[in-house]
Design a protein that fits this description.
The complex is a heterodimer of chains A (489) and B (118). Chain A is an all-alpha fold and 489 residues long. Chain A is 66% helix and 2% strand. Chain A has helices spanning 9-25, 32-52, 65-81, 93-112, 124-128, 130-165, 176-202, 218-238, 242-268, 274-299, 310-327, 336-342, 345-372, 380-396, 410-415, 423-446, 454-459, and strands at residues 328-329, 332-333, 377-379, 418-420. The longest helix of chain A has 36 residues, at 130-165. The chains are: A mainly alpha (489), B mainly alpha (118).
């Protein structure tokens, strides 16, 4: 940002949108790692600008769409800082420039509110579109990152195949771990992109591609789910422990079951195609089972003195209450007829599908926590048992580094002392998180046609194989917005 | 209710209630797992878990929560016992959190009673 920068807020935002579109054109595989590293700065700037925009509805943080995006941006950043792929390195110029623009717009806006300063030259009408522009910028930039990551992963695959054909030494081939880490990152940015697209469309005036959603009984569930996602991220970032992780997994399992019940009801009432539900129902069931297995495994690591963070308990209680009121009756789940009479089924199914998208990110954070959070402790007896079990599995697979290792001391066992999780105990937790990720991603892919708008739906073809998605097919049009303000780029 | 003002009897009662709720949750989760994916019992099971969390969070760290596993294999019965224990705590120090917990446990008793095997 130059000191002589005289652009208005409207111009800065228009430039940011243009830069985001340019990231799509320049989304080459070489840019992918740098784009991931720049993400937190971009989201951080957007969050700070969002907080001072006059036209953003004054809503509590948990119902603010930007809060959901902030949680994901921070989670990705924590993962990179902890040493996961792509690790430290150069950042992306385009995304950094967008972040600078947004920060500059924030400073202009803050300055214009002070009595000693001249007001911004932007008219209220210009600023009225600012939230939509910020959200659209994030959405397009996220998509650009997904495109670059997809190209990066495809290239690694191709290199690995060539190396295998030429029988190159394993040490010279791309690491399988890097491929899976980059694929994981695609899923995380995909989730971000979905949520940004939905938030953008929710803020737009109704149009044929974005029909108006009436205030319905779905609102409490929608609010509870959004609040839950934000709180789950906060808890996992601040103080993850086995008790909290059990609650996170149980709530996610319940959300998945509810998605299944309501989606099947929507299908019975003719709102969803039969072939979609045939793919989606088993995928949701597998995801629900995986989340519950995760809860059970983390549950083994709790102890009688364990506590669950009150804020997490509160958010979980809200989700449970909203689900009970929405989807159940005295005998269990409500019948499809009851659900159809109570709810706007097509809309609530879309809401739940978005929640599934967000749950992929939560699963990634749980995986990262299991992999290397230093503060995780559990009772010595169960750790000893689990570590030994995993070590024996490793030994059967030819891995000898755990041979003869003891994981607990007699004194720790005698008092069942809380001790840090050794590597083999983490291995089982990581495997379960991988199951959750695989099954949940499959459910998200199977439900891709339940997207919030026809526009995004058209971009979702090939979700199961994101590699090679075309840039041209992916634009949310902005028919109700004025032409971008400011100089063209 | 602040931790400092909680007397030993109240703390013991609450700890007993936490054990009852945790045991009830364990039984309902076992039933839900037997029914398989998508069991509606998970709504009740999660509700009991969360009530146990709330009760646990009312207790100071110094109070040991572990103790004998409560007798009984009927979740509704265990929940009723928990509710009765809660009624015994009626000190002026019983704050909004405790009143809220009472209401939630009473709801759970009702939910468990309408549950087929409750």
């Amino acid at each position: 940002m130059s000191t002589a920068d005289r652009r208005t807020i409207g111009e800065l935002l228009a430039d940011s949108e243009a830069l985001a579109r340019e990231t799509l054109l320049d989304a080459t595989l070489e840019q992918a790692p740098a784009m991931v590293r720049s993400w937190n700065q971009l989201v951080g700037s957007a969050v700070e600008l969002w907080a001072v925009l006059p036209s953003v509805p004054n809503s509590p943080s948990w119902s603010d769409p930007m809060e959901r995006l902030r949680a994901i941006g921070e989670a990705i950043s924590r993962s990179v800082t902890a040493g996961h792929w792509p690790g430290q390195g150069p950042t992306n110029e385009h995304l950094t420039q967008i972040a600078d623009n947004l920060s500059h717009a924030q400073h202009l806006l803050e300055r214009s509110g002070r009595p000693s300063q001249s007001p911004t030259t932007d008219s209220p009408a210009d600023l009225q579109h600012a939230p939509g522009q910020v959200m659209h910028t994030l959405y397009v930039a996220a998509h650009g990152t997904v495109v670059a990551l997809s190209a990066y992963t495809a290239d690694l695959h191709a290199q690995a195949e060539t190396a295998k054909r030429r029988r190159q030494p394993v040490a010279e081939r791309p690491a399988a771990l890097e491929i899976s880490a980059a694929q994981g990152m695609i899923a995380r940015f995909d989730g971000f992109e979905h949520l940004a697209a939905a938030a953008y469309l929710a803020g737009e005036p109704p149009s044929p591609t974005n029909p108006e959603q009436a205030a319905t009984p779905t609102k409490p569930l929608e609010t509870a789910l959004a609040a839950w996602e934000v709180q789950a991220h906060r808890t996992l970032a601040a103080s993850p422990d086995p008790a909290g992780l059990v609650r996170v997994a149980r709530v996610q399992a319940l959300i998945t079951s509810t998605t299944s019940i309501l989606t099947e009801a929507a299908a019975q009432k003719g709102h969803i195609d039969v072939d979609v539900i045939q793919r989606l129902a088993p995928a949701l069931e597998a995801s629900q089972i995986a989340w519950n297995r995760m809860a059970k495994r983390w549950g083994e690591l709790t102890n009688p003195a364990s506590r669950t963070e009150p804020a997490l308990v509160g958010a979980a209680s809200e989700v449970r209450a909203a689900i009970a009121a929405t989807a159940s009756n005295q005998a269990g789940w409500a019948t499809p007829d009851q659900l159809a009479s109570r709810l706007d089924l097509p809309n609530i199914v879309k809401t739940l599908h978005l929640s599934m998208v967000a749950s992929v990110e939560i699963a990634h954070v749980v995986r990262d926590t299991a992999a290397d959070h230093p503060g995780l402790t559990a009772p010595a007896r169960i750790i000893g048992m689990r570590s030994q079990g995993e070590a024996e599995i490793a030994l059967e697979q030819g891995e000898t580094r755990y041979e003869g290792v003891t994981w607990t001391t007699p004194r720790q066992l005698a008092s069942n002392q809380l001790i840090p999780l050794p590597e083999p105990a983490r291995r089982g937790l990581i495997n379960i998180a991988d199951d959750v990720l695989a099954t949940t991603k499959q459910a998200v892919a199977a439900g891709a046609q339940l997207e919030p708008s026809d526009v995004t739906r058209s971009t979702r073809c090939g979700r199961q194989a994101p590699i090679g998605r075309s840039v041209e097919s992916h634009q949310i049009t902005r028919p109700n917005n004025p032409a971008p303000i400011g100089p063209g780029r | 209710m602040s931790f400092q003002r909680m007397d030993a009897d109240t703390a013991e009662t609450l700890a007993g209630m936490v054990r009852l709720l945790r045991r009830a949750a364990e039984l309902v989760w076992a039933a839900a797992n037997t029914e398989g994916a998508g069991s509606p019992r998970q709504v009740l099971a999660l509700g009991i878990d969360l009530a146990a969390d709330e009760a646990r969070n009312l207790l100071p760290d110094a109070i040991a929560v572990d103790g004998p596993v409560p007798i009984g294999d009927q979740p509704a019965g265990l929940l009723r016992s928990a509710e009765q224990l809660l009624r015994r705590i009626d000190t002026p120090a019983a704050g909004a959190a405790l009143h809220g917990l009472r209401a939630r446990v009473a709801d759970l008793v009702w939910e468990a009673n309408t549950d087929v095997d409750g």
